[in-house]
Write a structure and sequence with these properties.
The chain has five helices and five strands, in the order H-H-H-H-E-H-E-E-E-E. The protein is an alpha+beta fold. A five-stranded antiparallel sheet has the order 4-3-2-1-5. This is Rve domain-containing protein.
Length: 128
């Protein structure tokens, strides 16, 4: 109670009964599932909208086995010994095989396989 309600009784204080309060709380507990379900539906709809917005702007990189690509030289040499004027991309390399969507094994044009796998994020298609 607030100090004002001690001197002047409000309708909330005058009409308060313990039984009505208990019954009201039980009714609210019975209806908790409905707002929870509505919130879950709203979250799912929001996530779908965000996903649709993001996927609209993503450009797919359709790289296949046998394509020629350039690889990011900063990722190829993580020591950072390259200079500022060094080329950003190196290659061309040939895609030897697709390990899974977006992951590739590369080989040089001479046929020597590159040791590690490469993500499509670090590759650019090479056009002759």
């Amino acid at each position: 109670m607030i100090p004002v309600e001690i001197g002047v009784q409000s309708p909330r204080v005058v009409h308060f009964t313990e039984d009505n309060n208990e019954e009201g709380l039980r009714c609210i507990l019975d209806l908790v599932e409905e707002p929870r379900d509505k919130a879950a539906i709203r979250v799912a709809a929001y996530q779908q909208r965000v996903s649709r917005y993001y996927n609209k702007r993503v450009s797919p990189r359709p790289l296949r086995q046998g394509d020629l690509v350039l690889r990011n030289s900063a990722v190829a040499d993580p020591t950072g010994t390259r200079g500022k004027l060094a080329p950003a991309l190196e290659g061309p390399y040939k895609i030897k095989r697709v390990l899974r969507p977006g992951t590739f094994k590369l080989e040089t044009l001479g046929g020597r396989e590159i040791a590690r796998a490469w993500n499509a994020e670090h590759l650019r298609k090479y056009y002759q």
